[in-house]
Specification:
The structure holds two protein chains of two kinds.
Chain A (H helix, E strand, L loop, with lengths): L9 H14 L5 H17 L8 H80 L3 H69 L2
Helix pairs in contact in A: 2-3
Chain B lengths: L2 H5 L3 E6 L5 E6 L3 E6 H5 L12 E4 L5 E7 L2 E6 L2 E6 H5 L5 E5 L12 E7 L4 E6 L4 E5 L4 E6 L6 E7 L4 E6 L3 E4 L2 E5 L10 E6 L3 E6 L4 E4 L4 E5 L6 E7 L2 E6 L3 E6 L4 E6 L5 E6 L9 E5 L3 E5 L7 E4 L1
Antiparallel strand pairs in B: 1-2, 2-3, 3-4, 5-6, 6-7, 7-8, 9-10, 10-11, 11-12, 13-14, 14-15, 15-16, 17-18, 18-19, 19-20, 21-22, 22-23, 23-24, 25-26, 26-27, 27-28
The chains are: A mainly alpha, B mainly beta.
Chain lengths: 207, 312
Amino acid sequence: MAASPPALGPVLDEVIRKRLLIDGDGAGDDRRINVLLKSFTKWCNSSGTPEEGFTQRMLGTLAQCEFSMGKTLMVYDMNLREMENYEKIYTNIEQNITSAHEKITECKKEIQRAKRIRKNRQEYDALAKVIQQHPDRHETLKQLEALDKELQQLSHIKENVDAKLELRKKQFHVLLSTIQELQQTLENDEKSDNDDNSQECPVENGE
Amino acid sequence: MGPVELLHMSVFSQSFSPCGRFLAAGNNYGQIALFSLSAALSPDATTRSQKPVLTFTAHDGPVFSLVSADGRLLSAGNGEVSAWSWSDLIKKNVRALWTRRPKYKSSLEIPEINSMVLQPRDNSLVIGGGDNNVHILDLEHGVFKSVLQGHSDYVHCVSVRDRESEILSGGEDGAVRINSRLCKVFCARPQYGKWISCLTTDSDWMLCGGGPSLSLWHLRSLSPTSTFPLTGCQRQAAFHQDMILAVGDGASVSHCLLAGEVKAQIPCSPQSLNTLQLNTNSSEHQVLTVGGSSSHIDVFTNLSYRAFSLSF
């Protein structure tokens, strides 16, 4: 119970008096304990028979106080356990955060790799498109083979024709040389005949 | 940078820094702007972080090509190549390391440099220019090693095949030349012309397009495998994982599959796009950036939608 300092004004005095009257015992549990104490002292000091339910009332108030105390103790326990729980959750979340960070860096590396693979695949596609435009290798090989065969055939034919040409050339050469020889012989014969004739004539002329 | 200039600005080239945190973009006024990707992609980014951290004038003419190599940024403009150090630029110290000009035949008219690409095998820079030739600059000694001739009109784009160390160049004459030996001349869409403006290779495969439709070629057999039914001329294309990304005339980035079908077209803010770059240098800022005929550069954090825009 605070004593009003006499130096302050009468208004404060009035306020304090009012508060003490209404709220003199404090609030809630405090009030109950104070009331209990007061009634106990009254009961102790009362001479003669006390009222009927006085003891009951006091026991009731006592029980209420004990109950309230038990409740507060439980609330305190609960708070302690809640705090532990929150600590656990907090560490858990921190761990999750770090692992998520690591996963993120892993995924970023993955995505870089995947992008490179994708780029390579696109390059392959582009090259494949170009390659498709060119004809098939088998076909080209076949064409080459066919052309080779044709070339061989044609060179064969050419050889044959060349050989024939040579042969004919040689035959004609033989023929022509024989004719020439015959011509020579005939000419020679004619010449010798003429000589004979001209030798006989001067003999006749000279007679 | 007045509003009229911003309206007429086109972004022609982009390049990411070797650490992957900065983007350099070149525009048609000869300026190069450096954007900080880490600031723009951070959770507390504001509109200020979408502005460049540094803008400087690099060349007289438009910067058509930017290449990052070895801690240096190489920029091409108006017939000359300049090198800037990335660490210097990040510290906002604008100082060109060197400037080289290939030997052009005539000194009256200076042809522009349309495209540059790095050949890491022998540490050289391949430059395709408006004088119909491809010049090769040795980055170690800083001298021009050789000139590949053969194109009859100016060279739009160059690309290298690293394994075989071949140089592919495509030009206005519609021909794609490998090491300046003629490889393909073709004309699939005569209404747009026969110029080849975009060329990119993935060792065995080559994408080329421009006037003719964008098509995929297999380089070993030199045969076209698929054509992509995209309207408009494509200006730049890239292979990304299992897809092909292409930008060009339409206000969208096209995602295509290797087989020849267009999977998606993602709209962007510039009306027509000139350049497309994927940030492969950094693992946490893997973005795709596109720039074109506007002063905005669209940034895609997920390839399926535009996240935000950086602006000059």
